[in-house]
Design a protein that fits this description.
Helix content is about 70%, strand content about 10%. The chain has helices at about 5-45, 45-75, 85-115, 125-150, 155-185, 195-220, 230-240, 275-290, and strands spanning about 245-255, 260-270, 295-305. Helix 5 runs antiparallel to helix 6.
Length: about 300
């Protein structure tokens, strides 16, 4: 029979391998897209495509950070870090959020300032680059998100969110370029600014994703309780044990890709330490069997009197 520790160790190694694979695929693809969008956006006179390229550059930084930190987050607990190293992924997620926030401010500034300068119509090549970026990002987003959910990885999830922002951003850039080209072809002055407006819209999307990532990172770092639905699932499992007379308190906090549960329950005051120990072990085992992302269950017993 394979012990849980050996199984879990193998799972962590598989998780690390998958995370690295996703990060490297994302890194290489983002480098290619970044160079293409920045060069074509610059020489093709498209602020929207150029802004999308800047966003992809932030994705490159994100992928590099994940490659560096994923091994750290999978390290087991030690004397200095008794709760493990899972929050390393959360810190990376927060750093990526800060990068995206800064990028959004820069793109907004460039887009708004473009209204006060002569406008030059972007090239058709810029639009096709944006369309290609959309297709590539859609494939990367779906595969990354599926891997993140399967392995409960915040770092891979951060990469997936970056891809999601790029999907809509690429569509907006393509439309903005097309509108500007139509405006020039038919001499419709207001349409000249389609590319500028698209770049500001791209900046808004980047800002929105950054806000979501930062909010989640802060919640985990501040050890916010997990959602009520999951806590109720834990309670349902615990209440299946007849010896549990009452659940006095239950808390659970995320540590990156795993969860730590704190539990206070009341049992009959006449129970021995041995009986309490066996009950705690059974509760912990059943919780971890039903929820693979639980790494530790800390149980405190209170005396119960009829």
């Amino acid at each position: 029979m394979i012990s849980r520790g050996i199984f879990k160790g193998g799972f962590m190694e598989l998780r690390e391998t998958l995370a690295k694979k996703v990060a490297w695929i994302s890194l290489v693809s983002n480098i290619i897209l970044t160079l293409g969008k920045i060069i074509i956006g610059w020489f093709g006179h498209s602020d929207a495509v150029f802004a999308d390229g800047i966003h992809s550059a932030a994705d490159v930084c994100a992928s590099l950070l994940v490659v560096l930190v994923i091994k750290i987050s999978n390290k087991p607990a030690d004397l200095e870090h008794p709760y493990g190293h899972g929050k390393a992924e959360v810190i990376v997620s927060g750093i990526v959020g800060i990068l995206l926030f800064e990028v959004s401010i820069y793109v907004i500034y460039e887009g708004v300032s473009g209204f006060f300068h002569p406008v030059e119509s972007p090239s058709m090549l810029a639009m096709w680059v944006a369309v290609f970026s959309f297709i590539a990002k859609m494939i990367l987003y779906r595969s990354s998100l599926a891997t993140a959910k399967k392995n409960n990885s915040k770092a891979i999830e951060a990469i997936a969110f970056d891809h999601r922002a790029d999907i809509v951003a690429s569509i907006a850039a393509a439309i903005g370029v097309l509108v500007s080209i139509i405006g020039e072809q038919f001499s419709i002055t207001p349409l000249f600014y389609g590319d500028k407006i698209a770049s500001i819209f791209v900046a808004y999307l980047i800002f929105k994703i950054a806000k979501e990532m930062l909010a989640e990172a802060f919640d985990i770092l501040l050890e916010r309780n997990i959602n009520t639905e999951t806590l109720q699932e834990y309670m349902t499992i615990i209440q299946q044990f007849p010896d549990v007379k009452r659940i006095d308190r239950i808390r659970a906090r995320e540590h990156g890709h795993y969860v730590i549960v704190d539990l206070r329950i009341a049992i009959d005051h006449a129970k021995t330490i041995k009986q309490g120990h066996d009950l705690a072990k059974s509760i912990k085992t059943r919780l971890m069997d039903h929820h693979d992302n639980i790494d530790e269950v800390l149980i405190h017993f209170n005396p119960y009197y009829d």
